[in-house]
Amino acid sequence: MRDGMRRKGLMAAAALLSGVLTLSACSGGGDDEPAGDSRDGGSEQSDADRAAEDANTSTAVISITPDDAADGVGINDDVQVSVEGGTLDEVVLTAAESGTEVAGTISGDGASWAPDAQLDRGTKYELSVQASDAEGREAHETRTFTTVSPENSFTGYFTPEDGTTVGVGMPVSLNFDKPIENRAEIEAAVEINSTSGQEIVGHWFSDTRLDFRPEDYWAANSEVTVDLNFDGVEGAADVIGWQDRTFSFTVGRSQISTVDAESHQMEVVRDGQPLRTVPISAGSEETPTYNGIMVISEKLEETRMNGATVGFTDDDGEGEYDIPDVPHAMRLSTSGTFVHGNYWAADGVFGSSNTSHGCIGLNDAQGADDPDTDGAWFFEESLLGDVIVVVNSPDREIQPDNGLNGWNMSWADWQAGSAL
């Protein structure tokens, strides 16, 4: 009995020893250095190293937007740097190819940084940031990213220009350089406010043109502010907006001129009061002037007019007319309708007959240097956005999208063209 117990004891000891050896083998200890010693010594060394590392590590934590190697980054507010547990010491943003450094500003409390202006599209940038904590220990972060390319972004070109004074008929017209599929999103990203309090609604003439207007002409002497919030808005698949732009314009006095093609007279009315009646010559029976409401969209002191550019050619394909120095010309349509000075017709034409190819002619002098002519007077008294209404012409009414002439559309039809 005692021998059996002794044998069991020896077997248990052997099993225990076997278990110790097995554990030693799994721990990775070598023959020269017992595994237990290696594990204990390594733990003490790691803790010491960790403590030393912690003592030298900055508590400043830098955060950067966008992520490293990001593509298609917006050029307005998409690049931002901030820090917690410290302050920013230096932020350097550089265009990788040119090496040009981008100006930026660290906030007064040292907690954030942003570029001072828009970045360039389709450009790779390198960003380097240094911050430090209260103990002066430095933290560093770097990023590279590429901004949205022109091929994958759209631009909205706008009329009127910022800071201008315009007539009461001037719409806000946006022309996009790429077709817009997500019309509602883009229209909603345009905010327009007027001191007149008028309701302003958009109308899509095409997938690249969006105009805005109130129901009636703008109130005279009002201020209009337009915010284009296109940055980051998807206009179509893989086509993103980049503009974050505000512009404004002033609506001046009201001037509406009515051209009667039958009586050959133009009555100019300012702020509801007759200002002057001017004799004119409208389009001939073969080439009549459009009827309808037209808005002055361009002013040229002198310009060249060639019939070939608007489809008036002779049998040889040459322009039926080619006048290099037409004075005091103001565009009324995209298709080539102008009100302009005319020095080549006899004085007796104005007020008595219609002889033009569709334009409205006023008596004028060659060289555009005689301020006493009707053409010079009307040019000086007119603003971009002033309204000219043509009546009693044998031609049809001008199309609303031919120039800035959306006033030839009823308010209900105008509203129906809104994506909202």
UniProtKB/TrEMBL annotation:
Q: Which organism is it from?
A: Streptomyces litchfieldiae
Region (Disordered) spans which residues?
25-58
Q: Name it.
A: Ig-like domain-containing protein
Gene3D superfamilies in UniProt: 2.60.40.3710, 2.60.40.3780, L,D-transpeptidase catalytic domain-like (2.40.440.10)
Highest taxon above the source species: Bacteria
CDD domains, sorted: LDT_IgD_like_2 (cd13432), YkuD_like (cd16913)
Its annotated pathway reads: Cell wall biogenesis; peptidoglycan biosynthesis
- State the InterPro entries in the record: Big_10, LD-transpeptidase, LD_TPept_cat_dom, Transpep_catalytic_dom
Q: Which residues form the L,D-TPase catalytic domain?
A: 255-391
From the UniProt record, list the coiled-coil ranges: none
Question: What keyword terms does UniProt attach to this protein?
Answer: Acyltransferase, Cell shape, Cell wall biogenesis/degradation, Peptidoglycan synthesis, Signal, Transferase
> Which residues are the signal sequence here?
1-27
Active site feature: H340 (proton donor/acceptor), C359 (nucleophile)
| Compositionally biased spans, kind Basic and acidic residues | 36-53
